[in-house]
Amino acid sequence: MSHVEKGYSVSSNPYPELYSDPHVLFAGVSRTLPGHMVGPKVHSYYLLHHVIAGRGIYCTGGQEFELHAGDSFLIVPEQLVSYIADEQEPWHYHWVAFQGSSVPQLLSSVGFTMTQPIAHHNNQWKIAKRFEQIQTSFYNKDAYSPYEAAGQLYLLLSAYGQILGSSSIVTASPPETPAESIVRQAIHYLTTQYAEEITMETMAESVGYNRAYLSRLFKQHTGETPVTFLLKLRIDQGRRLLREREDLTIEQVALSVGFHDPLYFSKQFRRLHGISPSQYRIQTIN
User: What residues does the HTH araC/xylS-type domain cover (predicted)?
Assistant: First the structure.
């Protein structure tokens, strides 16, 4: 349903049975009254606000934040929170409520944490537009609007990730050097495209670097050339299929991991592991 009053509008998910993860519950926008206060209270869902204009105070986890235009604040389920609009310059803000098992990891990966529940964005239009699009998707009541809203939420969180510049994966490790970043991209390319027709030229073009330079960096950081890395990767994937897919022939396994010639697959398999694919399958299955 959609509820609209002067200075206040909220649209709820019209098809809550079409579950997605994350699952958007409702979204809205409000021009609050001076001194408008919420809480102290707890919510059973995540609630993300973005301040368009005005100012106020947000309190959570023993911390107090003074927020202005361009600021956003996150409310976490079961966390005691309160927030109050300024008496002279009350808030005008958007909000979106959502839930799902994937949400904690999503929020952590873009930089939102219990100790860092706020973000500031200089490009007001970019963030506000995402909130508006989530609300509009519900307001239009399209049959697949829950999926559209979830997609818009992903784009919104992506924008916050660019703001906060933080990732639980990245911050857990030392910062990458430019060379390490290039090699990581090359490894990602090979591990996702190994079953396709890969050449070093296409990989270098995809990563955006000269082939010779890329090969040199790759060897320095992995101890292997990209060609050797790819060959071992394909053989390892072939071993997995030999163990797990008894219904596949040796030729089908070879084709599935990027070898167009099953004899070449068998030759390289024997060279690396000392036995033929057929013998390997017999040993591992029996």
Answer: 184-283
